[in-house]
Amino acid sequence: KNNQLYVYTLIISVICILLLYFKVYNINYYDKLFNIIDNNRESHYTRRVDESEPHLWTSSSVFTSDNLTTLTDHEINSFILNNNNNNNTNTTSDSIGYFTTVNITDNNTPITTLSPIIQSNKSQDSLIEESFNGYDLSLAKKQAIDLLNLIYHRYELNGIGAQFFRTANNFASYQWDKVKYKFMKKMLQGNQTFLMIFGGSSVTAGHDNYFNQSFPMIVLKRMKPVLKALGIKMKVHNIAQGANNCIPYSFCYESMGGMNPDFVGWEQSYNCGHDDPIFELVGRYAGWSTNQGLTYYSASGAWSPIGCPASTDNPPYSSEDWRPENVNLPQWSPDATALNEEKTQLDNYYKKNPSSKRFSGWVDDKYIASAPHGFNVWETNELCTYVKDGESKTKCNGIDAAMGCTMKFMTHEAGLYGSDNGNGANWHPTRAFHMLRGEAITWLYTLALLDGIYMVESDLANGLTPFELLTIYSKALDQLHPSMPDGKRCQNLHCDYRPICFTDYLPHYSKNLTLTDLIIGTHNWTYDDYEYPDWSKHYGYLDLKPVYISGPSAYHGEIFIKVTIGINDFVALCGERKESLKHTIIHVIPYANIPENKTEFIPPNNLTIWTKKKYFGNECKYILGLPVGIHVIGILPNTSHPSHITGLSHVIMWP
Hints:
The protein is α+β, with helices and mostly antiparallel strands. It folds into 2 domains: 140-479, Rossmann fold; 494-653, Jelly Rolls, CATH 2.60.120. It is built from 18 helices and 23 strands. β9 (381-388) and β10 form a beta hairpin.
C-alpha cells in the first residue's frame, strides 16, 4: 500500500510539473508572438490572447446546392483532395483525410459531405493550417487591385475626384482597421458569410432604375468575386421600401434583413432626416451584432449632370461597360505604402468633418462599436478645395468638389435613369449615380480588404501560422467593437434593449419573425398580400407591404395574436395606414393556453378590456402594463366607426 501511495504521489507530482511547464511555455510563446507582430508592422491596438484557444475545424463541412454554385471546381477539389498525392481516404499518423459522400439532389439537401478523419501527432496549429484551403490570397489580391484600379480611374481619384470622394465618403482609421480585421478573420475561420443590410426608401430600392442597378446591388456585383476568392460568402439584402415611415420600419432591420449583420446601411433622410433617435437606434444594430457590424448612413437626395455636355468617350466614363484600358490609362496597383497614405487622408477628412455627421452627430468615443460613416454630397469639409470662376476656394462639399461638369464622369449620359425611357423622379438617383454610390462603398471596403491581404502575407512570411493570426486578429477586432453604452438620445424608442419585429413586409429574410406566425385562432380579417404590380415585376423590385385589414364596409370581428413580455412591459401594435388602430377595442388574455395547432385556439367568453395604451407615432399603439410571460392580445374593430379601416402590419416586442 505504501508503494502504491508513493507511485500515485509521484505521478501527480509529474503531472503538476508538466502543467506548470506548459503554462509558462504558452505565456512565453505568446510574448514572443506579439514581439514578432509589433516588430514587423505598426500595431495600433494592444492585443492579448486568451490561453484557451478555440477549435477552428468542425466534424464535417456540408456543401448544399445553394452554396456549391458559388464554388469553383478548384475550390471543391481542394476540399476533397486535401492531400494532393492521396486519392483515397486512408490516413497515416501524419495526415488529414476525408470520407467523401456524394448525393446530388435538386433541392437544398446536402450533396457533398466531407468528414475529416484526424489521426495525427502534429500540433493543433499544423492541423488547422493544413485545413485552410478555402481561400486564394493571390487571386483575391489581383481582383482587389483590378477593382480599385477601375474606381480610381473612373472618378479620377488621382486628381479632382479625390476631393470629391474624401469629402462625401470619408472613413476613420479605426473603421478601416475594423473592416480589415473583419475580412481577414472571416477568411481564416472559413465558411463565413459577410451580410450587408441596406434599408431605406425608394432611393435605395432603386426606383426609376432596374433593381439590379441599385447601389446595394452594385456593391454585391463588385465585391462578391473578391470575397469568394477569400472563401467568404457575400450576401446583400436590400430591404428598402418606397413611401415607408421611419416608425415602425426602423425596428425591423433584422426582421426583414437578417440577424447579426456585418454592415447596416441606412437611407431615409426624406422621411426622418433630423431624427437623432432613429439614427442611433439603427446604429445600435451594428453594435448589437455578434458579427461586430458597422453602420453606413446615406443622404437621400439626388443630383444629376443631365445638363452637362455629352461624353466624347465611347463608352462614357459613367457606363457600366467602361474600363480604364478603353482610354489607355495605366494600371494603379497600390502597395501597402499607398494604401496607408489613402487611409491617412480619409482619416484626416473624417476628423475634420465626418461625411456622416448629419446622421452621426450623437456619436462619442464610447460609441465606436457602431463605427458610423457614410455618404453625403452636401456635407462640407474644411480640407476640401475647389476652383470657382477661376478662384480657389476652401471648405466645400462634394458637389462643389466635383466642379460641375469638370469630372469626366459628369456628362449628360450620367443624368439618365435606368428606366426604359431614361426618365425618373428628380429625388431618385440616376443609373450612373447608383453606380457612384455603390462604388464609393466598394472603394472604402476594398481598400481595407487589400490592406488586410498585405498584412496576412507579411505575417505569414514572418513565420506565423493561420491559427496564430486568427487569434491575434480576433482580439484586435474585439477591441474595435467594445460594449455599447446606454442609449443617448433614443430612450423614447427603448433602444437600450434589442427590439424584435414581426412583420410580413417584403423583402423578408428572417423567416421566423413574420406577423403571420403570431396570428392564432381563426379570423375573418382580409390578408392584403396583393401581388407585385407589373412595373415591379418588370424592373425587379422586391418591396411589398402585406397587411391584415378589417373594414371599411364589412365587420370582420376580432383577430388574436400571441405576444411575449420580458424586458419591457409593453408591445407595440402597428398598422400600415395612419391611425389604423384608432377605433379598436384591445383585449388581453394573460398566460393563455395556446394549443400546438394555433388555429384551434378558442378565446374565453369573458374577455378583459385593456385600457392601458397610448399612441406611438402615427401608425403604432403601445399596449402597456403587461406582466412577464406569454399572452394573447385581441384586436376588435369598433363597429361604431364603419368607415374606418383597421389594419395590422407590425408587432414589436422586447422579450
